[in-house]
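Proteins fold. Shown next:

***
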Amino acid sequence: MPVLTPEQVRVPVDVLPEARDAYIDNYLAATRGTGRLMLYACDQKIEHLNGDFYGEGIDPSDNNPEHLFQIGSQGVVGVLAGQKGLIARYAADYPETNYLVKMNSKTNLIKTAQDDPYSPQLYSLESVLAIREAGVNIVGIGYTIYLGSEYEATMLAEAGELITEAHAAGLIVVLWIYPRGKAVANEKDADLIAGAAGVALCLGADFVKVNPPKGSDTATSAELLARASEAAGRTGLVCAGGSTVDAEQFLTQLYEQIHTGGAAGNATGRNIHQRSLDEAVRLTKAISAITLADYDVQEALDVFHGKEDFKL
């Protein structure tokens, strides 16, 4: 199991001296002391409206937003990521959970054929710091950038300013970066995803969430991902979980992303919360067993099937 001491945390120099200890604490909290991120993504209620929470193949409990927080509280996650309003409504009942506030979002109603994507900043960092002062365990913020969109420059500028402000306050930052827009022919091109990883590094992000590249005739997705992980440098790269698939398939992909692709964790939403509470909790433990404790796939499946428990 990877173990990271406070002295081993690489603190960016844009973290103000008085915020250095807070940054280290937040980094270790989000990564559960391992340097790897288990990000539980709960931002889809804006991104995909209710389509990800109600319908065929989705457990009925997922229509209740509190389901997200029950999973985060009872399962094993590094940080629960969601919009400020969502967190503000429920965090008081789940004070032990680490939270990451998603600073921008858009719906999926406007398609790329109609207009290039732009995800606007929804609120100020000051408002996030205010609820942290009120006792919510906020360890970081997140922001989405659509590279290749005609609105790319605006999102890059917003992200750059937010990272500077967040680091100065001791928060970590995760960027969601997806090449998308009429100028982008292949969103899952390996070179393009490696480029996105490099952008996150240059903006100063602590972690970047990308889609895994599409495999080719000569290399698997995980093998191609290694190029992006290297390009990210000291910014940790994690992959989006995507739509819900069989647990064994998902855990195998995750293991390969970390051990072949060099990923520094995972960012998983639908694959977790679309399940019943019991099943979702067991899956968070199986995912964390691989991400945080270097379990192999079979050992993680034993956790998922309840043959053994996993705690940190």
